[in-house]
Amino acid sequence: MEKVYVDNNNKALVICPKCGFEKNVDATNFRNTKNKVTGKCKCIEGFDFTLEYRKHYRKNVKLPGEYIVQKSGEKGEVIIRELSLTGLQFESLKPHQISTDDIMEVKFKLDDQKKSEIRRFAKVVWVKNRNVGVQFNERNLYEKDLGFYLNF
Questions:
Q1: Which one, 16, 76, 104, 135, has the greatest CB density within 10 A?
Q2: How do residues 86-126 score in pLDDT, each as one tens digit?
Q3: CA–CA dist 52, 18 (Å, integer)
Q4: Which domains does the chain have, with CATH numbers?
Q5: Cα separation of 71 and 64, whole Å?
Q6: Cα→Cα distances 57→13, 93, 141, Å
Q7: CA geometry: angle at 68 spanning 66 and 69, to 5°?
């Protein structure tokens, strides 16, 4: 299924997979409802695509890491599953007591040539069983290494 990125003006450029016809579509009405959309081209071709509202590319990865929750001091080992310039999603290797809005430090090494170490403070945005999504608190500290990694 094709992924179509939505810009800051809620516009998405949709391209028909059969004839190549391009059309800018207003994605405002889809923002709070669903991301999967079925389109129909003027050539009568029907096709499905997903709308992506993220501002930064999210890369699927499998990187070992660890966390420390600031308030409780809870520590644990994780596997980073998704990574972007502004946050990440990880899977805890063991059950945890992490809650939404917890502040934690996450530490992991990229699997790039330099084995760059990334340490970030992050706020927990969501928790579902052993999967946790966090948003980085600080910006620009590691964007060079992380930005280069995410572009390749």
A1: 104
A2: 899 999 999 999 999 999 999 999 998 889 899 999 999 99
A3: 21
A4: 2-52 (no CATH), 59-150 (2.40.10.220)
A5: 23
A6: 17, 25, 18
A7: 140
